[in-house]
Amino acid sequence: MMRYLFYICLCMLLQGCPSGTPPETVDAAAEPHRPVFHFTPEKMWMNDPNGMVYFEGEYHLFYQYYPDSTVWGPMHWGHAVSADLLHWQHLPVALYPDSLGLIFSGSAVVDWNNTSGFGENGRPPLVAIFTQHSMEGEKAGRVDFQNQSIAYSNDKGRHWTKYSGNPVIPNPGIRDFRDPKVIWHEASKQWVMVFAAQNHVQIWGSPDLKNWKHLSDFGREWGSHGGVWECPDLFPLTVEGSAEQKWVLLLSINPGAPNGGSGTQYFVGRFDGRQFTLDERFAAGVRNEQAVWLDYGRDNYAGVTWSDIPEDDGRRIFLGWMSNWDYARDVPTVLWRSAMTLPRVLRLRDTPAGPRLYAAPVAETELLRAKTAAIKPLASGNEADLSAITG
């Protein structure tokens, strides 16, 4: 009897948990494997998070998306927005492939000073920066089939116009040349782009998001090179308990993660607007193919952070693809495939081994908590009144 009542109570409590995907869109009977507070696409295939930017009360999440199948195919940018990082509104596909290629991973920024000239009526545009992948070029055996392009929006990301001068960074002859992350670097008064170039990253600068100049490279001699480098992110963080600011470079790798398949390593150092230089203490842990990993789980890949979080918030919010290329195609879902991690806040702490990242779920996840009911021990043969438990 006790075991029976326990399972009834447990089921009621679990059913009462709120959902990060609007409940009216989830049919538990038809989709028994769909998470309820990890972001998932309404249907079809999803992988890397892209273009994460905050603007006028909305967290934008774009993502690698194939709208015609639950397996990877020609990439588009899917799109969703949220006010709280938990409950998401699905929007129409933001970017479609064109004659320059598929729409691979990238980032988005608010061009507050309209340096690009794309803004209208005195309002700043949203600008997306992404890799275009030419399938025709790849099939022809060329190595220059990935280039960097941009698009802009003047209606809070609902409609996008691709720049007529694309690509803004043509491929110089590097096979894996992709995944641009762009930030505004106030000290040097320029836009800075970091992207993966096979076994290292390249850093470029621009005054207007359209005209770019190569500034430096990083990484050939540092970190793990067990696979291709992908999806970099570069941002400042203040060391907890001090006023010291350092720069963090996130870098995904596939394969080569410590527990197999894909994973995320990172580096800590200085950035002067031109070159990223490792912190001396941190460098000891990334010599001779060693790496410092963001985590050791198998389901956190291609993660990057939101841009343009308001200063009065100040958090560095990270989101990753909750899967692994070792088995992403085999997840037993029918209508959709893949999910994102919970958003988490990254913090930098000093340790005996040097500066290290720490992460915890965003405070908004506390909104998902429900009231609990304590069930006292019940002697065999007695009954418990469960009428007050609903869900």
Descriptive overview:
With 391 residues, the chain is mainly β. The chain has one domain: Tachylectin-2, Chain A (5 Propeller). 6% of the residues lie in helices and 39% in strands. It has a five-stranded mixed beta sheet with strand order 4-3-2-1-19, with no helix packed on it. The protein has a four-stranded antiparallel beta sheet with strand order 5-6-7-8. A four-stranded antiparallel beta sheet has the order 9-10-11-12, with no helix packed on it. The longest helix is centred in the N-terminal third of the chain and has 14 residues, at 2-15. The radius of gyration is 23 Å and the shape is globular. It starts with a helix and ends in a 30-residue tail after the last strand. Residues 1-26 have low confidence and may be disordered.
Give the secondary structure arrangement, pairings included:
Elements (H helix, E strand, L loop, with lengths): L1 H14 L28 E12 L2 E9 L9 E7 L5 E8 L6 E9 L15 E8 L1 H5 L6 E8 L7 E2 L14 E9 L4 E8 L3 E6 L6 E6 L9 E11 L6 E10 L8 E9 L4 E3 L1 H4 L17 E5 L11 E5 L14 E2 L6 E8 L2 E8 L30
Parallel strand pairs: 1-19
Antiparallel strand pairs: 1-2, 2-3, 3-4, 5-6, 6-7, 7-8, 9-10, 10-11, 11-12, 13-14, 14-15, 15-16, 17-18, 18-20, 20-21
